[in-house]
Amino acid sequence: MIVLQKNYTKLLYPIYYLFHKNIFFGLLHKVFIKNFYYKNLKFELKVKNLPLSVRSSFLFKTYEINDRLLVERHINKNNKCIVIGGGIGFIPSLIGQLSKNPMLIFEVNQDLKKNLIKN
Question: Which of 12, 36, 71, 92 could form a disulfide with 43 if both were Cys (CB 3.0 to 4.6 A apart)?
Answer without folding.
Answer: 36
